[in-house]
Amino acid sequence: MAETFTSATDGPDDDAPFRSRLTFDLDVDICIVGAGLAGLTVALEAARLGASVAVLEGRYVGWNASGHQLGTVMPGYGLPIGELIERVGIEDARELWALSKEGADYVRAAANEEAMPGIALTEGALEVSNVDAGDTLISRLQVLSEDFETEVEGWQIDRVRDQLGTARYFHGIYYPKAFQIDGRKYIQGLAEQAKRAGARIFEDTPVVSIDPSGIRKRIVTPSARLRASHIVLAGNIHLGAPLRRLSETLLPVWRYGAVTEPLGERLGEVIRFRGSVSDSDGVDHFRIVGGDRLMWASPETTWDARPRRFGSAIQRRIATVFPRIGKVQIADVFGGAVGLTVHGMPQIGQLRKGLWVASGFGRQGLNTSAMAGQLIARSILWGDERWRLFSPFELVWAGGTTGRVAGHLIGMWGRGSSAAAGALARYREGARARERIREARLAEANRQAGTGTRPSPRRPPPGAPRPPGGPRPVRPQLPEPVEMQDPAPVALASQEREKIRDGSM
């Protein structure tokens, strides 16, 4: 089934139900600020558990990054697994990882065709390396499968390149239980499920101020006031003036993507893998959608810009990675802002009694926002204490304008170093291939030399006198030089190898 895509500059989906602005005072158990993936998951789960819930959204459901992403769902966090272990220890790292797997299971259970028609779920995700990192691959596979009980497969270079027709990628890690969905359908489906469960969603209702003191917290909007026992801040970087100090703990990053025009059979001839693909450096993320279109996310900025500006950049990037596809036409470009934390983990937990945060999901994945929503709802209503696993990842100021400039420069350096490392890896691979060819030519030349005709040893002419003192001693005969059919390959290979040993190549 084909997916639908909407530009980030568009308004609400035409088929999305209208959710009115809040124009009257309201008293609820839980007030959620932000109707993104995390906020709607909190609303859905809390309403299912019997709480009265109101969701306040300044614009409309799914207007930002939550409604404009590639829809990949797999376990894990933005923080590399080795660094996670170093930060919290192996036992807590296992529990955190188990929570991320629960989040993926939650999305799979919610995103089915019966509950969300047109969700277009496809299986499998592949993470590929830009460099030849076989040893690192083996070590990571062992950690994931043995220590974190995650089903993974290691793919060798030949298999990766068989599925992805490009020489830019080397090894890969395949997650067979990962999957991808239509992100727009998913967030609208979440909103509908939350509404059916009893949650009330109010669009075009920005929050003017919040007073978190006391048992009943107070929230003020332009046209109404609310009182709630619990407030959940799920507005990411868009919390605005009422909670500027919290939003400034996130580095805003705008991620842009595009969908190509139909590419026909040529796409399947080059890219055979039907799941999502991401590189180990986080530069590119892509998958096939709608049968013969390519959805590709690549550029990032720390400043807001019109998504259409990046269409040509994505077009060039596709041609660079997959030159066999040729030039593609871009049908749509989309984008959205995410919040990155300094430590690379999401912000999940209780800031003070009755005031909760679910934010910082940039580069985390759909599974993490789903897990956070479920965990906070259960923490409020059941007393689930597992949110404390995220306590080591405290709120850290992201640096303001200076941090955004530094983030932009670091991003540029990261993309540049990734490109340089990939180019060096491909050069080394080519050098090894050329060396194997030279070795093969040398072996063939030696084989041909070994099958040549050796000259017979010289014998004295008949009647020649023998040396005095008995029989003439037999001298060992050394083989004379043998003429090879083609001595050039031997000389060339010898010269090339001497240059390599001397470091001149």
From TrEMBL:
Give one Pfam family, short name only: DAO
| Pro residues compositional bias, start-end | 458-479
**Single annotated GO MF:** oxidoreductase activity
**Signal peptide location:** none
Q: What is the lineage of its organism?
A: Bacteria, Pseudomonadati, Pseudomonadota, Alphaproteobacteria, Hyphomicrobiales
Residue span(s) of domain FAD dependent oxidoreductase: 29-378
Instruction: Give the UniProt keywords, A-Z.
Output: Oxidoreductase
Q: What is this protein called?
A: Glycine/D-amino acid oxidase
